[in-house]
Amino acid sequence: MILKNPEKFMAYLFEVAWILPSVAIPVAVITAVVLTAFAVGLRVPDVAGRIDPQAITVTEPFDEPGLRELAPGKYQATMIAQVFLFTPNEIEVPAGSEVTFVLTSRDVIHGFKIVGTSVNMMVVPGQISKLTVRFDRPGEYLIVCHEYCGSGHHVMSGKVIVY
Ligand SMILES: [Cu+2]
């Protein structure tokens, strides 16, 4: 039926030539984004729990911030963010350790990024943020607050020392 009319057939081919890329390009882009996210270990941090910001110092595990060894090579780093510091602002772990960072904020919204790793999350008052990362290479990893939190925002930093 189409072939009886060559003009109509050409119009049909032309239409297909437009439709195919308009489907193939978004599919290719979405596939690339998903594959890349898995390849670099991208994860979206979720809310690990709620906490009363007024009761941080008496609520576990924030009543004792710091590094805790949960199992050989597995640590939990409990940290509190507040204007303009992290408590503690330095932790030391051996290379090959898996560290779960558990944070909350005492006052305003802060950011928590460990340069050179996939750790990047928001620290929101009333909320507990949690992310796990493995440190394979020894070195000093800078921790920065990447959410403008006031006049001292630029000095809000810390470090993870991997030995
Ligand atoms: Cu901050």
Key descriptive features of the protein:
single chain, 1 helix, six-stranded mixed β-sheet, 163 residues
Please give the structural blueprint:
Blueprint: H1 6-39, E1 47-50, E2 66-71, E3 74-82, E4 85-87, E5 90-93, E6 97-105, E7 110-114, E8 120-123, E9 127-135, E10 139-144, E11 157-162
Parallel strand pairs: 3-6, 5-11
Antiparallel strand pairs: 1-9, 2-3, 3-4, 6-9, 7-8, 7-10, 10-11
Bound molecules: copper (II) ion.
Poorly predicted ranges: none
Total number of beta strands: 11
Broad structural category: alpha+beta
Mean pLDDT: 90
Order of helices and strands: HEEEEEEEEEEE
Biggest sheet statistics:
6 strands, mixed
Q: What percent strand?
A: 35-45%
Multimeric state? single chain
Brief summary:
With 163 residues, the protein is α+β, with helices and mostly antiparallel strands. It is 21% helix and 40% strand. The longest helix has 34 residues, at 6-39.
Give a written overview of the molecule.
It is built from one helix and eleven strands, in the order H-E-E-E-E-E-E-E-E-E-E-E. With 163 residues, it is of the alpha+beta class. Strands 1, 2, 3, 4, 6 and 9 form a six-stranded mixed β-sheet that branches. It has a five-stranded mixed β-sheet with strand order 5-11-10-7-8, with no helix packed on it. A hairpin with a 5-residue loop joins strand 7 (110-114) and strand 8 (120-123). The protein is elongated, with a radius of gyration of 24 Å. The N and C termini lie far apart (75 Å). Copper (II) ion (CU) binds at residues 110, 145, 147, 149, 153, 156. Copper (II) ion binds next to loops.
